[in-house]
Design a protein that fits this description.
Helices cover 54% and strands 9% of the residues. The chain has 232 residues and is α/β, with parallel strands linked by helices.
Amino acid sequence: MTSILNEIIEERFKKWEHDNLEKKPRTPKGKLFPVITVSREFGALGAALAKHMSEKLGFSIWDKEILQVVAEKLGSDKKYLESLDENRRKTIEDMVVGFLNKSTTNTGYIRTLNEVVSALEDHGNSVIVGRGANYICTHPNSFHLRLVSPMKVRKGHIAAKEGISKSEAQAIINKMDEERSAFVQHHFKKDVSNSSDYDIVLNSSVFTLDEMMEIVMLAYEKKTGLKLPFHN
């Protein structure tokens, strides 16, 4: 990892810690817990569970923050990136590549994405959302989770959240699922729906966030031998 990338990531960690000073959940100081990666079908509450776990475990959460670090490292316009209307983009990843310096290629983007996620894995104590992180993280104790849910449930969530019809919600879901699958296939030559690429696959229509977290914590302990710090 380059010194510049290290500085960017450390600054992000410091900001996260500062923003969460008043929150009680903290991982034991100096203790490294393997990262948790979260892959998800669109509308299956993957981001919601990641946020919930972050808050309860005192882990930092890395979702769009990863793209911001990649953008900073490669010299793209971070402010423009942050202002993008996600509903109008093809994929965030493609937009990042589009706003890089002209000399930077897609290869440079994926290489930097790998560097960033690998650095987060080394740091530990984090929940990493999407970006094919489970294919980048190679530590045997890193924990990989995927969330799925029936289409009828997912389109209900999206329709309610966005104030649109269920048919419109399904079109968005189909598009997002296709883009995420294509991203993983293009960059990692993997099928995102292959259940054997994850330590556990959960159907979020069956369990509450607390129940899913309880299952994850048990599976995490069985795999790593470490009991996660949980705070009510």
